[in-house]
Design brief:
The chain is an all-alpha fold. Helix content is 68%, strand content 0%. The protein is built from eight helices and no strands. Helix 1 packs parallel to helix 8 and helix 2 packs parallel to helix 4. The longest helix has 25 residues. The protein is globular and about 55 Å long.
């Protein structure tokens, strides 16, 4: 699981580095919105939610540890608020009001409520979310304050937007996957333990990595822009 998170983090770094190059006009505007980059971004965000759904079942499938679950939820929610405040200060017209951390926090509430659901019913919930997305996504004339649901057509501009519809689907799919696959199958038999531990380390600190990586990338790209100008 930690190695899978590391892979997702590396994909995120690649995408954000490319977006930062675009922001500093070192590559053509709109690059990350078209071609290869658009599905790459969706796959990366979906992988975080999928792995979070798997983790929910692995950690709380048999018995809910409310203390650890509540602590993690509070940590993610606090980090989400921090991202909102920082991006509002830096980009008040495009701040992140519901990004990946906000989605993970809300998905965690669904996860704890559905923790006892069997895999087939969770996949039914995935189908329901996809159906709602197909029928109503960005189509209802709701207030912008409901943009986070994914149903409103009134979506304020933002640099990162992961609404509940359709992004709850990969989270529930991860839960279903974890329930369908025997626990032992989720852990591969790594021949080189040291190498596996190194690969797992970023994934074990994924939240810290997420919060730190973008300031580092922005500083790097800023320096590149100075050198190339």
């Amino acid at each position: 699981m930690d190695i899978a998170r590391t892979i997702a983090l590396m994909a995120m770094v690649v995408f954000h580095f490319t977006r930062d190059l675009e922001f500093f006009r070192l590559i053509p505007p709109g690059t990350t919105l078209t071609g290869f980059w658009a599905p790459f971004a969706r796959l990366t965000a979906g992988s975080f939610l999928f792995l979070s759904g798997v983790s929910m079942v692995v950690a709380h499938g048999r018995e809910v540890r409310l203390g650890s679950w509540g602590k993690r939820l509070a940590t993610i929610a606090t980090a989400a608020m921090f991202v909102t405040l920082v991006t509002y200060a830096a980009l008040p017209d495009h701040f992140i009001y519901f990004g990946i951390l906000h989605a993970l926090a809300v998905a965690g509430l669904f996860g704890i409520a559905l923790r006892k659901a069997p895999a087939w019913s969770l996949m039914g919930a995935v189908a329901l979310v996809v159906l709602i997305d197909t029928a109503f996504a960005r189509s209802l004339d709701l207030s912008p304050r409901w943009a986070w649901t994914g149903l409103s057509r009134n979506v304020p501009p933002t640099v990162d937007f992961i609404p509940i519809v359709p992004w709850l689907a990969p989270y529930l799919a991860g839960m279903a996957f974890a329930k369908a696959v025997p626990p032992g199958k989720l852990e591969p038999n790594w021949p080189n333990f040291v190498q596996a531990a190194r690969l797992a380390w970023p994934g074990q600190h994924s939240l810290t990595f997420y919060l730190v990586h973008q300031p580092v990338l922005v500083a790097m790209v800023w320096l590149i822009s100075l050198v190339s100008s």
